[in-house]
From TrEMBL:
Keywords: Amino-acid biosynthesis, Aromatic amino acid biosynthesis, NAD, Oxidoreductase, Tyrosine biosynthesis. PROSITE patterns: ACT (PS51671), PDH_ADH (PS51176). Belongs to the prephenate/arogenate dehydrogenase family. It comes from Paraliobacillus quinghaiensis. It catalyses: prephenate + NAD(+) = 3-(4-hydroxyphenyl)pyruvate + CO2 + NADH. This is Prephenate dehydrogenase. Residues 296-366 form the ACT domain. Pathway: Amino-acid biosynthesis; L-tyrosine biosynthesis; (4-hydroxyphenyl)pyruvate from prephenate (NAD(+) route): step 1/1. Residues 3-291 form the Prephenate/arogenate dehydrogenase domain. GO terms for biological process: tyrosine biosynthetic process. CDD domains: ACT_PDH-BS. Pfam families: PDH_C (PF20463), PDH_N (PF02153). Its EC number is 1.3.1.12.
């Protein structure tokens, strides 16, 4: 018999998982969300087979339930699950960016029929809502699962099978490990990105043209400051103590840097920058990790109508698929740099050759 999957919270992540599951399995998909427009959109665009407004009733129908609401709302949904009586096995997972409070809440589910496996796809975007959902969002990403000791291998396999179509790589982490690692690599950088934007905004009072000068570097480092504030506020408070520790570390490090300037210690400053460069470059090696392993080609193009289209068509003629395109710097009449991210080294070399043959100036990611 066809199994039923309930997705509770049909935003960017829940919607993307629903699309992916629909594309890759024949499971019957039910969608639940507190936003009626989201439910209408999901049904109209056939992201799910059925929508419901009664969470408890839908849970009783489901074989698998994916909780994809904001972290604190996911905890509230888990609290509801503690009081629902199910008469068939139910496998529950979530997608929350913070794991410890989720696993703690789930430990209060006492029914023998229910298995909870914490989950977190390490991919997303600064966009939110169902309209931004994409079935291929998790391709090449790390998908963290936090099964506890009581989780059977059958249940784990069932969840892994469901997620197979995402083409992500499953990594098992315990919740504490997860929360520390994601704070360093994901949560804390969001706080810093927002603080850099605030700094620019303050200085704009003195220099009105600051936004005009905000070129590649500033845009690169602050892209994530355009993310969903409600989601990040929730994450920071759910992972508060680690964020506080990292903030303290950061303040100390900034104080050290300040001292290097005060004491004119150019050698230490150089070493600081060089060590950061070496570590950052190492993250981009061709193994999968928090930073996806793409093969980049940088192309110098003029900001003229059709320039982007010409580059893309050139590669498309040779069936080279581009994983990601980013314009790093582009001002009217001035050359700009286009970053093409490709899926294999073969595509990277072939694209580079084609572009050079057609008169483009290129550079490969080392
Ligand atoms: N955005 C990312 O980059 C990203 C990446 C990985 C994991 N996550 C995690 O995924 C979860 C969802 O984030 P998102 O980016 O999809 O957010 P989103 O704002 O795009 O979607 C959240 C959805 O949950 C719905 N919702 C809110 N309260 C609800 C409730 N009580 N019951 C049911 N639905 C409810 C909202 O209406 C919305 O449709 C969060 O826990 C977040 O930490 C986000
Ligand atoms: O790509 C982005 O914009 C993201 O912010 C994705 C990102 C991240 O920090 O890497 C954000 C939150 C998640 O929990 C996982 C992934």
């Amino acid at each position: 018999m066809t199994k039923t999957v309930l997705v509770a919270g049909l935003g960017l992540i829940g919607g993307s998982l629903a699309i992916n599951i629909k594309e890759n399995t024949d499971y019957h998909l039910i969608g639940f969300d507190v936003n009626s427009q989201t439910l209408d959109y999901s049904l109209k665009n056939r992201i799910v087979d059925e929508v419901v407004t009664d969470f408890k009733k839908a849970v009783k129908q489901a074989d698998i339930c994916i909780l994809a609401a904001p972290v604190s709302k996911t905890i509230e949904l888990i609290d509801q699950l503690k009081h629902i009586v199910v008469d068939k096995p139910l496998l529950i997972t979530d997608v929350s960016s913070v794991k410890k409070p989720i696993i703690e809440a789930a430990s209060g589910i006492t029914s023998d029929m229910i298995t909870f496996i914490g989950g977190h796809p390490m991919a997303g975007s600064h966009k939110k809502g169902i309209e931004a959902a994409k079935g291929h969002l998790f391709e090449n990403a790390i998908y963290i699962l936090s099964p506890d000791d009581s989780c059977s291998s059958k249940n784990l396999r069932e969840l892994e099978n469901l997620l197979k179509g995402t083409r992500s790589t499953i990594l098992k982490l315990d919740p504490t490990e997860h929360d520390e690692m994601t704070s360093v690599i994901s949560h804390f950088p969001h706080l810093i990105a927002s603080s850099l934007v605030h700094q620019a905004k303050k200085w704009q009072k003195k220099h009105v043209n600051i936004p005009t000068l905000a070129a590649g570097g500033f845009r690169d480092i602050t892209r994530i400051a355009s993310s969903n504030p409600a989601m990040w506020q929730d994450i920071f408070f759910q992972n508060k103590s680690i964020i506080q520790d990292l903030l303290e570390d950061w303040v100390n490090e900034m104080t050290d840097l300040k001292k290097l300037l005060e004491t004119d210690d150019k050698i230490s400053m150089y070493q600081y920058l060089e060590q950061a460069r070496e570590y950052r470059d190492g993250l981009d090696t061709k193994k999968k990790g928090a930073i996806p392993s793409f093969y980049d080609v940088y192309v110098d193009i003029f900001d003229q109508t059709g320039a982007l289209l010409k580059v893309v068509s050139l590669l498309a003629q040779k069936d080279i698929s581009i994983k990601n395109i980013e314009i790093l710097e582009m001002r009217e009449g001035i050359t700009g740099v286009l970053r093409l991210s490709l899926l294999s080294q073969k595509d990277q070399i072939e694209s580079n050759r084609l572009l050079i043959e057609n008169g483009y100036e290129t550079m490969l990611q080392e």
